[in-house]
Amino acid sequence: MLWKNNQPKTCVVIVAHPDDETLWAGGMILTHPHWHWFIIGLCRKHDPDRSPKFQKALRALKACGVLSNLDDSPDLQALDEKVVEQQILDRLPKVSIDLILTHSPDGEYTRHLRHEEIGKAVINLWHADKIRTQELWVFAYEDGNREYFPKPIENASIYTKLSKSVWLQKFSIVTEIYGFGKESWEANTTPLSEAFWQFGSAKEASKWLTNKAKYR
Fold it and tell me: What does DSSP assign to residue 4?
């Protein structure tokens, strides 16, 4: 498996918001500091609070990255698929990519439209051969339709428990860099384990997306 191979990788994390990279994949990033990480956040570029915190988080994660400014207002409206896709394409680094991590088309909790749109867009771009990567992992979390805080799905393709030291680093980024209180939703959501659905081909990921759409 790619993640168990210790050779350096070029990895891109594509998320909606500054903090998503830490909440859903921070442990994986921190566990592989020798990999080359590039993080794309598609919202909050001009947010005077969150944008500088994202830069601090990048340093803590030993990653590079960039933000964009998709609408993230309280009353979210669906965006045109092509708009989301172009925002992703415009910010991808011009390098050969081994692994992309992104949101699930189901999101990680009930519910955030931007998470869902971005997960779908990445899969569609890969299937259209507009982005290339050896593997795609989508975050595998659920909240039982708001019955509990989001938790990793244990039967996902990849389910990994974080060491205490890695989890503490991750928790510190959430609470000390992003500034969320230790009793906040974000702090309570910071999982001790991380999970991902893993795809080795665009065809496989597209089929998975199509099957999910049938049951919505």
Answer: G
